[in-house]
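Design job #97: recover the sequence.
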C-alpha cells in the first residue's frame, strides 16, 4: 500500500467518526430539562463568591491589623522603664550622755550633757536636774552652741536645782556634737549623783519629736 492510499483511508475513517454536533446539543438540552430543581436551602447555604472589591478590602484590613499589632508590640518592647523612687537612708538616732566633768573637786562640780545630733533641729530643750544633796548653789553654766540662740533659766524646783536651755524660735541646731554644762558648789566631800538626771526634747525639720532621759555615771576621761 502506497502512502497516498494510506492517507486517504485515514481521512475517510476520521470523517466516519466525526461527532454529530446537533445530536449532542439535543441530548444536553434534554438532560437539563429533566434535572430536578436545586433545593432552596442548599442554594442559600452555598457562599457567594467574593467580589474583587471585597477581596481587596479584606487584604487591606489584614495589612492594617498587622501594622497596628506591630506598632503595639514595638511600643511595649521599647517603652522606657518607670523610674524607681529612691528612699533616702535614715539618719542615725539622736544620742545623749550625762557625766560629771573630771575637773570637779571636793567642793565644786560640773555636770555635762553631751548631745550627738544627726540632723538639723528646729526645736531643742535641755534640762539638767541636780539633786539638793546639801550645800548646792549654782555658780554658772555654758554650752558650745551660740549663747544668743538660747533662753536659759536656773532655779530650784522641788528637791532639785534645775538648769534649762530652750532654743529660741526661728533658730536651728546644726548636726554635730554639742555640750551643755551646769556648775555648782556642794558640801565638802564626794557627792552622790544617783538622784541627778537630764531630759532632752527635740523636733527635727520634718516636725518629728524625740525625747531622751538619762543620768550621770562615772566622771569623763
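Job complete. Output follows.
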Amino acid at each position: 500500500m502506497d502512502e497516498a492510499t494510506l492517507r486517504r483511508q485515514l481521512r475517510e475513517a476520521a470523517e466516519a467518526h466525526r461527532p454529530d454536533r446537533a445530536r449532542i446539543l439535543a441530548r444536553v438540552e434534554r438532560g437539563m430539562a429533566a434535572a430536578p430543581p436545586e433545593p432552596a436551602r442548599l442554594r442559600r447555604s452555598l457562599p457567594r463568591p467574593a467580589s474583587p472589591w471585597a477581596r481587596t478590602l479584606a487584604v487591606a484590613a489584614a495589612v492594617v491589623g498587622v501594622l497596628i499589632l506591630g506598632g503595639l508590640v514595638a511600643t511595649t518592647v521599647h517603652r522606657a522603664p518607670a523610674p524607681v523612687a529612691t528612699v533616702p537612708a535614715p539618719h542615725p538616732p539622736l544620742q545623749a550622755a550625762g557625766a560629771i566633768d573630771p575637773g570637779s573637786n571636793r567642793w565644786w562640780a560640773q555636770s555635762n550633757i553631751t548631745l550627738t545630733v544627726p540632723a538639723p533641729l528646729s526645736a531643742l530643750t535641755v534640762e539638767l536636774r541636780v539633786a539638793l544633796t546639801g550645800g548646792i548653789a549654782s555658780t554658772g553654766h555654758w554650752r558650745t552652741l551660740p549663747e544668743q540662740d538660747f533662753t536659759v533659766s536656773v532655779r530650784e524646783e522641788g528637791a532639785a536645782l534645775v538648769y534649762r536651755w530652750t532654743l529660741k524660735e526661728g533658730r536651728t541646731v546644726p548636726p554635730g556634737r554639742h555640750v551643755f554644762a551646769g556648775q555648782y558648789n556642794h558640801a565638802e566631800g564626794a557627792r552622790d549623783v544617783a538622784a541627778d538626771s537630764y531630759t532632752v526634747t527635740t523636733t527635727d525639720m520634718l516636725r518629728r519629736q524625740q525625747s531622751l532621759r538619762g543620768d550621770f555615771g562615772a566622771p569623763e576621761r
